[in-house]
Write a structure and sequence with these properties.
alpha+beta; Thrombin, subunit H; 2 domains; 5 helices; rod-shaped
């Protein structure tokens, strides 16, 4: 305490000078608008520099947490890309395992999309995807998810498209029992979103409960061998010449989220040849 008092007494003149100086500056700034403006401008500049410096310092110490957040986001994106590649590879494998010529595996390409609106409760159901003409999506293209077929593109806008769901009573899909050559027609009769029916299978066709129903490949909409459903049982019908099977659909339409649009690079050529055949008949 004694040392502090001695220090103050020794430099008392400087303390008095500093106090008078501060009072003089305060009076000058308070009573003169020009000096006040200069002071405020300088003060703001100094304060801004201080804040900027502090922001840089705090930002440096926050780099670790920012980096961890970026790493987590990057990992999530990588997982999504990996899952997408796996799904596309699975679809290509299904094509390779089908009765197609191996060169036909290159015939089809896939455009990924997300379902942004979906219905399953109506007799004629549709869903909307976030891809359109600018992404190469055109009416007539088949749509599948990771489990099987889900619909056909009906209307294509620039950025979005409407898809006729498999759960639509007006639609029929050419299918067959896997491993056989007997062609039938898959249809949905309303009600249960997990159940479909395969009609017009010849009565002499052999089958087992649990057999897989797949696409026939008799169109440019779907390649051969894409899963559709699994046979549950045979349904009685009035026509004794054909079987009707009740099948459990492989896709969960109430949980539809990520889909793939199938692009057949030969579609226009095949369709034009089909049109020419009709004209010649």
């Amino acid at each position: 305490m004694r040392n502090i008092l001695e220090f103050i007494l020794r430099y008392s003149k400087w303390f008095v000078f500093t106090v008078y100086l501060l009072l003089g500056v305060l009076l000058l700034v308070s009573n003169n608008s020009y000096q006040q403006s200069v002071y405020l401008t300088s003060a703001n500049m100094v304060t801004g520099n201080i804040y900027n410096g502090w922001s840089s310092v705090s930002g440096y110490f926050n780099l670790k947490s920012i980096n961890e957040s970026l790493q987590a986001s990057n990992a999530e994106l990588q997982n999504q890309v990996f899952n997408l590649k796996e799904e596309i590879a699975e679809l290509r494998t299904q094509l390779a395992d089908s009765a197609f010529d191996p060169r036909d595996a290159e015939r089809f390409d896939f455009i990924s999309a997300s379902v942004i609106n979906n219905s399953t409760r109506h007799p004629r159901n549709y869903f909307t995807i976030n891809r359109g003409r600018k992404d190469g999506v055109m009416p007539g293209m088949g749509v599948v998810d990771q489990n099987g077929i889900v619909g056909i593109v009906n209307v294509s806008g620039n950025n979005m498209s409407r898809v006729i769901s498999l759960l639509n009573e007006t639609q029929h899909f050419s299918v067959k029992i896997k491993g056989s050559s007997y062609i039938g027609s898959l249809t949905w009769k309303g009600g249960d979103a997990t159940i479909g029916y395969v009609e017009e299978i010849p009565r002499h066709a052999t089958y087992q409960i649990g057999d897989t129903v797949v696409t026939s490949g008799f169109s440019t909409t779907f390649p051969e061998g894409i899963p559709v459903g699994v046979i549950m049982n045979r349904v009685r019908n009035q026509d004794d010449s054909f079987f009707t099977f009740k099948v459990r659909l492989t896709s969960d339409f109430k949980a539809l989220s990520s889909v793939r649009i199938i692009k057949d690079i030969y579609k226009n050529e095949i369709d034009s040849l089909a049109t020419l055949d009709l004209q010649l008949q």
